[in-house]
Amino acid sequence: MKIREISDLIHGEILTQFNEEKDYFTAFACDLMSDCLAFINDPNCILITGLVNEQSLRTAEMLDIDCIIFVRGKPISKDIIELGKKHNLTLILTKTTLFEVSGILYQAGIKPLQIR
Predict the structure, then answer these.
(1) By the 8 A CB rule, do 24 and 47 touch?
(2) 9, burial (CB in 10 Å: exposed 0-12, middle 13-18, buried 19+)
């Protein structure tokens, strides 16, 4: 699924866009970046989180993830947006909750990350 489709489904706002043609097939929803580091094993995964800070972007960068969906409509600083641009991250903001975003994307065909 492409970024525009994902954003439309979750009523999101694309804040930065790195690769509009890339297809995403899996997602991982989490606010604990330590869990992301422990469990994410697919760089083509979407990270869905309510943690709106530099740590989320740094974690995504370490895992080679290039798409983060920020949920619950939390305000995002210009510094975070600029850091996302600098590291070629697609950042999407939605007012929808983490639970709802996960369900919407799952129903649309995005699969859960397989934890090994």
Answers:
(1) no
(2) middle
Q: Please classify residue 86 by burial: count the beta carbons closer than 10 Å to its beta carbon, then call 0-12 exposed, 13-18 middle and 19+ buried.
A: exposed
SS3 45: strand
Q: Which amino acid is at 75?
A: P
pTM of the model: 0.94
Instruction: Give the count of domains, the chain.
Output: 1
The tokens 């706002």 sit on which residue?
Answer: 13
Domain extent for 102: 3-112
pLDDT digits (tens, 9 = 90+) for 15-65: 998 788 899 999 999 999 999 998 998 888 999 999 999 999 999 999 999
3-class secondary structure, 87: coil
Phi, psi for 27 (deg, rounded to 5): -145, 155
